[in-house]
Amino acid sequence: MGKKANKRMIGFVSLGCPKNIVDSERMLAQIAQAGFPITAEPDNADVVVINTCGFIAPAKAESLDAIKHAVDCKRRGTVKKVIVAGCLSQRMGPDIFKEISGIDAVVSLDQRDYIVEIIKKTFSSASRSASRRVKDSSVSPFTPEKKSTMHQGVPDDRCRLLITPSHWAYLRISEGCDRLCSFCTIPSIRGRFRSKSQNQVLAEANELVSAGVVELNVIAQDTTNYGRDLKLKDGLSVLIKELEKISGLAWIRLMYLYPAGMSDMLIQTIARSEKIVHYLDIPIQHVNDDILKAMRRPDTRDSLRRLIEKVRSSIDDVVLRTTLMVGFPGETDKQFNELIDFVRWAQFDALGCFPFYPESGTPAAKMPNQIPEIVKQQRLDELMVTQQKIAFTRNENRLGRVLTCLVDSAERGGLYRGRYYGQAPDIDSICFIRNSSVQPGQFIKTKVIGSSDYDLLVEQI
Q1: What confidence category does residue 6 fall into, taking pLDDT thresholds of 50, 70 and 90?
Q2: CATH architecture for residues 402-460
Q3: Which of 194, 123, 207, 199 is nearest to 162 (CA)?
Q4: Distance of alpha carbon 239 from alpha carbon 171, whole angstroms
Q5: What is the 3-state secondary structure (H, E, C) of 173-238?
Q6: Residue ranges per domain, the chain?
Q7: Residues 6+ apart with CB under 8 A from 372
Q8: CA nearest 141: which of 108, 109, 110, 112?
């Protein structure tokens, strides 16, 4: 290809969850190391790489819209090549060529670490003819000679070009999922659950902290399951105790804690830690026993209630976040009201909610008594209004409190954006910091002086 080829401008679009962000950062690092310049204007790039999400219908629609936009740019001549990667590529495979014409390559999750080779091949005459010949035999027309074992093993996420602020990052500790929730597409997309070795996780963490990261957000499809496939007893507890030893690391945040995996050992490890923030993201999905059984979740309303009581009694300043689903097939008004009552009792600090989507290939998509869309939306609205009242009251109760904030960015008008330990990046509310002269990545002490909807207004002490 030569020096001229390496001057081709690469545009990159990253969609989806934190796991996808990690994949994007790994691909971006490889692209940069290969000498390709990366542009912030993908509509005018020689090559556009779209790292897609395909978990649920809205994510799939967003990804398809981004692909169609890139292909339109290609037809107008402002873009030369369009490459599609990520979960939607894995889920749809070669069918994506039939869905949208004009795509030059589709990259499976296994092929993430061959993105540079694939980019180069899109410009070779052989691969151009290959892309026209693609039928259903391969996810990508550009299969490298060496097969990646990412889907069978675990991805090596070292050497990333962060697209998050430089002071915080995601740390993926495992890939895939063995939970067979009846509504979920993740096992079919990401494969079986497999943990990274402790040494690999620590190497990645040390690399990130050495680059200036002070907050690590620990992620996986099922974080509490870490180490079980490696025959490690209390694997997550052991791992985070090792992470605590990293000098320069201030905050460790645990995301996606499966309720059934919340052991007494893990709760006590969090309670005693000086670096693990007292913020727990525990997606419970529902609380009605019949709905949970139909979802293939091992929890019950009573077990979830006991878990929340145990967590709150063990960690008195804990901030709890959860994720719920409404409109699961067969959900009655009575079962939905049971969920509302539980939310009022639990007083979650933060809550995300989704309507049920009948995803193809999942058992729940074929279940009888599917709920009409209008009913799903009504239930979603009612639940979120219920949670809004709880969140606003909690903010009022924080008036006058002293909070340590991590500064994320500068705002207009002399304000800064930041977060206290109870706010995870990108998904939760934020703190607007007033009367401050600080730098992103700095920890400061603040006092809560007000609130604006879900956000807090704080003043540096």
Answers
A1: low
A2: Beta Barrel (2.40)
A3: 207
A4: 12
A5: CEECCCCCCCCCCHHHHHCCCEECCHHHHHHHHHHHHHCCCCEEEEECCCHHHCCHHHCCCCHHHH
A6: 2-133, 168-397, 402-460
A7: none
A8: 108
User: How many angstroms separate the CA atoms of 71 and 79, rounded?
Assistant: 8
- Return the structure tokens found at 335: 């079962």
Q: How remote is the C-alpha of 21 from its chain's centroid?
A: 7
Task: Say if residues 88 and 51 touch (Cβ distance below 8 Å).
Answer: no
For residue 347, the tally of other CB atoms under 10 A from its CB is 14
Identify each DSSP E strand in 394-454 by its residue range. Answer: 402-410, 416-419, 431-434, 443-452
Residue 133 has pLDDT above 70, yes or no: no
CA distance 142 to 164: 30
Beta 38-39 vs 10-14: how paired, if at all? Answer: parallel
Tens digit of pLDDT for each residue in 294-310? Answer: 999 999 999 999 999 99
| Rounded Cα distance, 227 and 174, in Å | 9
CATH superfamily of 168-397: tm_1862 like domain (3.80.30.20)
Paired tokens of 276: 């693990």
Q: Would the pLDDT of 143 be above 80? A: no
* Superfamily name with CATH number, domain 2-133: Methylthiotransferase, N-terminal domain (3.40.50.12160)
Q: pTM to 2 decimals?
A: 0.92
Do the beta carbons of residue 283 and residue 292 sit within 8 Å? Answer: no
Q: What is the rounded distance in angstroms from the CA atom of residue 164 to the CA atom of residue 248?
A: 18
Nearest to 164 by CA among 253, 86, 226: 253
- Whole-angstrom CA distances from 156 to 13, 24, 199, 201, 417 are 21, 13, 12, 9, 32
Q: What is the signed CA dihedral for 40, 207, 24, 258, rounded to 10 degrees?
A: -130
- For residue 457, what are the β-bridge partners? 432, 450
Most distant CA pair in the chain, distance: 67
Structure tokens at 429: 């509310």
